[in-house]
Amino acid sequence: MKSAEVKKRVVITGLGVVAPNGVGLPAFTNAIKKGVSGITYHQNLKDKGFSCCIGGVPTILEEKKLEYLTPLQLRGFNSTSILYGCMAGIDAWKDAGFSVKEHSELDYDSGIIFGTGTSGIEKLREAIYKIDDQNVRRLGSTSVVQTMASGISAYLGGILGLGNQVTTNSSACTTGTEALLLGFERIKNGKAKRMLVGSSSDSSLYTWGGFDAMRVMSYKHNKTPEKGSRPMSASASGFVPGSGAGALVLESLESALERNATIYAEVLGGNINSGGQRNGGTLTAPNSEAVQKCIAEALLDSGVSSLEIDVINGHLTATSKDSLEIENWTKALQRSGTNFPYINSLKSMVGHCLAASGAIECVASVVQIKEQFVFPNINCDDVHPEVSALISKDKIPTQMIDKNITILAKASFGFGDVNGCILFKKYSD
Amino acid sequence: MGVYSLKNIQINMTKEDIISKLTTIVKPYVQNEEGFKNLNENTDFINDLEINSANLVDIILDVEDEFNIEIDNDSMEKMLSVKATVEVIQTKMNA
């Protein structure tokens, strides 16, 4: 396929999700409408001396795994990030109307960009123990493929038989949002017809431990796990770790129409940038100027005015940075008070799914457009005074509301001072 | 005493016994069911059973566990067929 002179329109034709409050799109959609928390207490965190002993872990029965992976693939398998990614990715691909067959014809028009932070950290631990025990030969063939960063895209690539670009991106908590924009650009530029995009993150205390040590996770709700994740709340005390995967099938509009596929929404455009760890930005804190520029340029790229935004799905982790994020949105959009769009944070229900957060939240964003509702912010009855000084409390719904949504803005921000912002639009020809 | 009796059992194992155990070991890795049905001494793991070459090391680890032996690198390289594998197992068990 040659790069097209005319840029292609890109739509979303498939969704898949493995989240702490719902595995599979129907369960997840139902959960976010009702404001169901997926946060639970984990004794293993307590046993290892964690300050924060609560987290979001998707519930997956053993027999469910066999619907996605073969008994051979499950031999010596110990990577939840790959499991979640395969489940979400396969679900999304089927949801888009494609079949999954072992000996399907290779599809050179479809590719994968599926991100993660670290892959198979529990498998990596197994390998390290064996090597330290002078037993490197006992690693067998399963160690490399489960611990290489690109393990998730490699597994999916083989299961689906896709022949376009197949790769893994990694940009901390921006990963999923970045994956979507990378896939979007590839289709827009005529390099692929379809891209399966998404991200995943392990359910593991080894992934979460470093954050506990940084004192950025909440330790005040070990007895009330469902109340623990409190974005924009006055009583927010840090994020609650989560895990899972989200996946979306992006497709050129012409290919989707040709196939008569269900169209969930259109990706209008977006922007990815970095604050360069300058002007207040550090490896772990955002440069506000760059955040605002990212949002403003995403609007420019999409050709929409800030006044057209109906809903924002924020990054909003429940740390002290929430009010700064709100301030950045108000400045970038030049909207505040009662003139501000509705805003919500999925993290109130599933915690911060780290590398998976962007993709799971993009799925939640697109479902809201498709079904025309705004999901509730749970645990936000006490809006932080710094937040309510900037935007009206009415714009932070605590119950689901039905709403005609045309344009939704989704942003993610990550360690490394990296930012991503996407504009989704309700599909109309 | 446990080790002594275990060794006796191993020494008394016939070629047929070894092939039977080996059949169970390779089963999860097989991608050609027809080849598996006809498994015999001359069966080649890659050509007849279409086992992914990366999985050969997993089969060797499973063989080590099942027969309580350790297989060196040179012997490993030979283990591409049922016949060669049985020979390696017999040699190691009698060592």
Describe the structure.
The complex is a heterodimer of chains A (429) and B (95). Chain A has 429 residues and is an alpha/beta fold. Chain A contains 15 helices and 15 strands. Chain A folds into two domains: 10-259, Peroxisomal Thiolase, Chain A, domain 1, CATH 3.40.47.10; 269-425, Thiolase/Chalcone synthase (Peroxisomal Thiolase, Chain A, domain 1, 3-Layer(aba) Sandwich), CATH 3.40.47.10. In chain A, the strands form three sheets. In chain A, strands 1, 2, 5, 6, 7, 8, 9, 10, 11, 14 and 15 form an eleven-stranded mixed sheet that branches. Chain A has a two-stranded antiparallel ribbon with strand order 3-4. In chain A, strands 12-13 form a two-stranded antiparallel sheet. In chain A, helix 11 crosses helix 12 (322-333). Chain A starts with 9 loop residues before the first strand and ends with a strand. With 95 residues, chain B is mainly α. Chain B is 61% helix and 0% strand. Chain B has helices at residues 2-11, 15-26, 33-37, 56-67, 73-78, 82-94. Chain A binds chain B through residues 71-72, 75-76, 137-138, 140-142, and chain B through 28-29, 54-55, 57-58, 61.
Helix content of chain B: 55-70%
Average of pLDDT of chain B: 90
Shape of chain B: globular
What amount of the residues of chain A lies in strands? 15-25%
Mean pLDDT of chain A: 97
The main β sheet of chain A shows up as: 11 strands, mixed
Number of strands of chain B: 0
The number of distinct β-strands of chain A equals: 15
What would you call the shape of chain A?
Answer: globular
How are the SSEs placed, and which strands pair?
The complex is a heterodimer of chains A (429) and B (95).
Chain A: E1 10-19, E2 22-23, H1 25-34, E3 39-41, H2 43-47, E4 54-56, H3 62-65, H4 80-95, E5 110-116, H5 121-132, H6 142-147, H7 151-160, E6 166-167, H8 175-188, E7 194-201, H9 205-213, E8 244-252, H10 253-259, E9 265-274, H11 288-302, E10 311-313, H12 322-333, E11 342-344, H13 347-350, H14 357-371, E12 373-374, H15 385-388, E13 401-402, E14 407-414, E15 418-425
Parallel strand pairs in A: 5-6, 5-7, 10-11, 10-14
Antiparallel strand pairs in A: 1-2, 1-8, 1-9, 3-4, 7-8, 9-15, 12-13, 14-15
Helix pairs in contact in A: 4-7, 8-14, 11-12
Chain B: H1 2-11, H2 15-26, H3 33-37, H4 56-67, H5 73-78, H6 82-94
